[in-house]
TrEMBL record:
Protein name stated in the entry: NAD(P)/FAD-dependent oxidoreductase
Xref: InterPro entries: BFD-like_2Fe2S-bd_dom, BFD-like_2Fe2S-bd_dom_sf, FAD-dep_OxRdtase, FAD/NAD-bd_sf, G3P_Oxidase/Oxidoreductase
One Pfam family recorded for the sequence: Fer2_BFD
Gene3D superfamilies: BFD-like [2Fe-2S]-binding domain (1.10.10.1100), D-Amino Acid Oxidase, subunit A, domain 2 (3.30.9.10), FAD/NAD(P)-binding domain (3.50.50.60)
N-terminal signal peptide: none
FAD dependent oxidoreductase domain boundaries: 3-354
BFD-like [2Fe-2S]-binding domain location: 398-452
Protein species of origin: Mediterraneibacter hominis
Amino acid sequence: MYDTVIIGAGVTGCAVARELSRYEIKACVLEKEEDVCSGTSKANSGIVHAGFDARPGTLMAKLNVQGNRMMEELSRELDFPFKRNGSLVVCTDPADRDRLTELYERGIKNGVKHLRILEREELLSLEPHISEEAVCALYAPEGGIVCPFGLTIALAENACVNGVEFYLEQEVKQIERMKDGWKLTTGTGKIYETKTVINAAGVYADVFHNMASRQKIHITPRKGEYLLYDKEAGEHVTRTIFALPGKLGKGVLVTPTVHGNLLCGPTALDIEDRDGVDTTAEGLWAVQEKARLTVEHIPTKAVITSFAGLRAHEDGHEFLIQEAEDAPGFIDCAGIESPGLTSAPAIGQMVANMVRNKLKLKENKKFQKTRKGILNPEKLSLKERNELIQKEPAYGNMICRCEKISEGEILDAIHRPLGARSLDGVKRRTRAGMGRCQAGFCTPKVMEILAREQNIAWEEITKKGGKSRMVIGEK
């Protein structure tokens, strides 16, 4: 029997797993997809919010600020990209100045540091492409950007190294109460018995909660569509630019990414399909039009791809992180929408403390708190790179021209803990296929490496697991 089973290997589930691995515990993560970071966590803005948006006194506000403060040290420990680039909330109507002031006051109450309101002249000096309609802006230097894949995968790898087991392609289908805990049955027929359950299932969290508890909750999938621009547009803005928030959230933002691209989005549309991540002409047009309200001259021709993600919107618009009253040992991490990515490190700590106290866990004295990410040869000096290639020739074999990714980096991605098994797995770990040509050049080369290193036929290689096979046979 496990001490705890975590449902979901997104950023929340992996943050909880990593924090629980600080203790002597038998724990595992069940994930329905073939890789970690395959749901909501893979398709979001990558923003580390400062914490001025959530209502004071809410769990959302508290954990946002805590998670923001934890992110920099965590990025050093686990070696993932993070940058504190600051954010601006732009007011384009003088009549809305009071709303901006309210946002400032909310941030002060939440404990956000260094907030101030900038007038147009200073705003233009920071961001020359800001809208002509901009009157003033709320400036939050504590805002940042992060790689969602990098953060989630780093948390998962570190948890794995510290003893947490990960079972992929194990979709939970049934949850039953037992005398001493819970029994979870997956779609493959496997049964997992556990003392406690951590429900970190994103847009499916209400489904599992409602299996365990008579006190029902409801989550709405809120779809957001995005446009990603080539690196030639990456310096169009240097900070994350928000419009004043509306009733459906923070609106369309314009931001650089930690990898040097420009990102615009998301839209906000409530849907019923919990897997509905299709993009639409209407949605992408709306992204462009709304982005122009705060930032001018965005180079539309530099768009290289579009995507959509789902936010797990709970009816009360609050994080539900608690043990169900009528289901002892069943702990929800539900309604984790924005600022969920920012809050994840703090959520992990909070839930791990709950489990530690409930099970009276002892400290894991062998806990390894650091993790080294995939080597990036671009960060080496010419001499160091030449020495690396002489020692490991695979680092001299360029596979992805757009992102300058070598065979050595792809081999690392495949063979490290929780290594890549699909094209998307390689892409999320190395960025091979994320560049201007969107994998047009490197796909066959990456497939060749995946087939060779996993000793499988090309017909078995998938884009993202399941039935997403790339080829059906050879002629």
